Amino acid sequence: MTDDQLIRDVRAGSRQAFEALFERYRGPIWQFFRRRIPEAARAEELAQDTFVALLEGAHRYEARTAFRAYLFGIAYHVLSADRRKAARRRSDPLDFEPASDPRDPDAGLWVRRALAQLDEDDREILMLREYNELSYQEIAALRQLPLNTVRSRLFRARMALKAALVPAEDSVRVKR
Amino acid sequence: MKAAHTLPPEDVMAYLDGELNGDEARDIQAHLAGCPECQRLSAELREGSMQLREWSVEDVRLTFVAPAPRQNPPRRDWFGLRVWTYLTRRPLIAGAFAVVAVAIVGAITIQPARKSSVVTVASSSAERLGGSLVPRGFALSQQAQQGQQGQNGMDRQSVAEPAQIGPRIVRTARLHIVATDFNAVRPAIDRILQSSAGFVGSITASDRPGATRSIHGDLRIPSGRFDAALAALRGLGRVTEDSQNAEDVTSTVVDLDVRISNARATEKRLSDVLQNRTGRLSDVLEVEREIMRVRTEIEQMESQRKQLDGRIEYATITLEVDEEQRASVNLGPIPIPTRLRQAVADGVESAAMSVLAVTISILRGGPVLLLWLAVLGLPVWWLLRRYAVGESREPRV
């Protein structure tokens, strides 16, 4: 069944349809938060919130956009709300603190460091494209930016990442 | 020479991301086949994506016990019922609506009391202002006139009743004065400002050649010393224009106070709701947005209140003082004999000024001229003299 069929069933009250959607998207949504939140428990909580919000707002879903973009839109808003709350709790602005895999903390270490050097907006666009595989149009809708701005920022982010990766990658590999 | 590369690199990136339609994709593909520069960019972009994939996160550990989704309520045609259903499903938003409704009802309840206080204030202020203004024949503001009329028809009992809030009057005046002794005007204005603890809002002194001197400005005087300051300013010269205005802003002040008070209460209640929230995330976000909106409103209203307080506390006198000469110039056309006499006088004055200017130039340039004559003239004189002596010593042939 397609995503649209499943969400229509969820709107009609089908528990099985929701479980199917959850099973299909729990990995991508978990990874979405895990790559942006350093604490795994908090990432899990926000992922839960995303699916709760999906469930509660299923009756508002309209098939104008792909379900995938709709779901990541919810996740993005949940993340933004959490960041705003965190910023209020702390006096200083939050830095990007990329998560590492506890099984292999060095996995992609240079990638994480390079991403942390990017401009915050550019990094978010790059991650939405590369890790969450959203289209330019979907990113533009999510970030409320013109399509061309998304395109130029994505290119800028990729070039900046390339520049940041070269020396970092060399140094990490030398250490190994 | 290498031709300029016109294909935007973003197009190559969009092609690799599958963001281009068929024709555009074919064009880029054809271009890529023959362009080493774009091939290199394409390889770099692909490599970048591959490198990003090296950042993996641990396996998903998310489990979710899905609660049974609620059945959609049957759609009701009556809008009110739909709103009711919406509010009952969102208790936080319903609470916020209830707070706003209470605030509106409160404001409506306070309205009659505020109106009665305004009437009392208007009449009492007119009573206070009218005594000094009407006999002099100056224009009263519309508000003060209405207050004066109200006083005539109103029973004394209501006037005597203390108002819930004192009168809030913004007083302004405009004075145009022709001063005989213009040099004394500015010091006199400073003295008046000092004695009345006022200050200059803005002031411009004009002293253009060929024109009479003038001073234009806005003076801010504490409302309690407004009449005394005005009387002192009238003494600067002959008053050619004198108008006053008293604007009763009591109702505006009361209205702002009530709105600020209600908004603060709303903000507090919304904050309490947020602190003790047990609702859904979307509801919390809704309440946060509402709090931000209310706070912005409060700040705007407090700013208005401060501006109003400033205008109430300090009256504004717009003062315009011209030198006496301007009045005589404006009396009418000058007769021809007078103009001829003035021309002769001007001619003599111009000749005298010319002689004076030459004298001043000589006096100014004289020392410098003497200096350079001494510096350059003495060597020249010495050379000429030597040449003359040498010539005289040579034997004549």
Question: If you had to describe this structure to a student in words, what would you say it looks like?
Answer:
The complex is a heterodimer of chains A (176) and B (397). By secondary structure, chain A is mainly alpha-helical. Chain A folds into two domains: 1-94, Rna Polymerase Sigma Factor, Chain: A, CATH 1.10.1740.10; 101-176, Winged helix-like DNA-binding domain superfamily/Winged helix DNA-binding domain (Arc Repressor Mutant, subunit A, Orthogonal Bundle). Chain A is 71% helix and 0% strand. Chain A has eight helices and no strands. In chain A, helix 6 (120-130) packs across helix 8 (147-175) and helix 7 packs across helix 8 (147-175). The N and C termini of chain A lie far apart (47 Å). Chain B is α+β, with helices and mostly antiparallel strands. Chain B folds into two domains: 9-52, no CATH class; 78-333, no CATH class. Chain B contains 13 helices and five strands. In chain B, a hairpin with a 7-residue loop joins strand 2 and strand 3 (214-222). Chain B is flat. Chains A and B meet through helix 2, helix 3, helix 4, helix 5 and helix 6 of A and helix 1, helix 3 and helix 11 of B.
